[in-house]
Write a structure and sequence with these properties.
The chain is of the alpha/beta class and 256 residues long. It has one domain. 38% of the residues lie in helices and 12% in strands. It contains nine helices and seven strands, in the order E-H-E-H-E-H-E-H-E-H-H-H-H-E-E-H. A seven-stranded mixed beta sheet has the order 2-1-3-4-5-7-6. Helix 1 links the parallel strand 1 and strand 2. The longest helix has 22 residues. It is globular, with a radius of gyration of 18 Å.
């Protein structure tokens, strides 16, 4: 593939958002669009079907940041398209363009070790060379939930919160994932309201993660920092905390 060996230095102030999930796409889009630092960037969000994302792969060579949804349920459907994206941009990765991954993490049950993430992240590093990986708990469905999503058709994006999170979202448990995302991103609200809701989300996720990884409570706190949590040679972040900061820094080539 010619795209594997070519460099594309004339990249524009563009960001590609690649996902089959319109709710996640809207969240990413609005978080970037409403950030004053990011308003001058053009956001490209292809229609959420596999065919359209395949067609968009070549156009990614004009963007500086590529945001890819790599959740377990839909990744098999998008793997070929993502392979093309990486191939077209390979020579420029972490130099002229950057990949941010958003995923649902490895399959795990409460009480398991955070070390489950090490091999999981290592595979993504080899495959995508991402500048950052964001773990999104709102994508983290249990295996039985994932099976139910595929009963009637090839895949289905659930509108409900993952059942493991419901007990922690006591005020929001009857809300759809879309409503929860809209509440916490607080687009159009004052900075004070945004900060208040961000703190609520921090508290919710801290309680949930502390139970999931009760033997690593000391490490959980790092997930709420911009630097994220480092495990062995791998590092990951918690979506949506500092997500816009990472997008801004990568667009401006401010790479640590």
């Amino acid at each position: 593939m010619a795209g594997d060996i070519l460099s594309h230095p004339n990249r524009q102030k563009k960001i590609h958002i690649l996902t089959l999930d319109t709710v996640l796409a809207d969240d990413v889009y609005e978080r970037i669009h409403y950030d004053p630092r990011l308003k001058r960037y053009r956001l490209i969000n292809p229609f959420p079907e596999v065919t359209y994302i395949h067609k968009a792969a070549r156009d990614t060579v004009s963007s500086k940041v590529l945001i890819l949804d790599v959740r377990r349920k839909t990744l098999p459907l998008l793997q070929r398209a993502y392979t093309k994206v990486v191939g077209y941009n390979r020579r420029d990765l972490n130099r002229l363009c950057y990949i941010i991954l958003i995923g649902d993490g490895p399959g795990f049950q409460a009480g398991k070790s955070l070390d489950y993430f090490v091999l999981y992240l290592a595979d993504y590093r080899v495959e995508y060379s991402p500048a950052a990986f964001f773990y999104d708990p709102l994508l983290h469905y249990e295996p039985d939930e994932l099976i139910c999503m595929g009963i009637d058709r090839e895949f289905m994006i659930s509108a409900d919160l993952p059942k493991g999170l419901v007990p922690y979202f006591t005020v929001h448990q009857n809300m759809s994932t879309d409503a929860v995302r809209r509440f916490f991103r607080a687009s159009g609200e004052s900075q004070e309201v945004k900060n208040q809701r961000l703190q609520i989300l921090i508290n919710l996720y801290h309680k949930w993660l502390s139970k999931q990884f009760h033997s690593h409570k000391d490490k959980v706190k790092a997930l709420f920092s911009k630097e994220g949590l480092r495990l062995a040679c791998e590092k990951f972040h918690l979506y949506p905390f500092f997500f816009e900061d990472w997008v801004h820094d990568l667009m401006e080539n401010r790479v640590n």
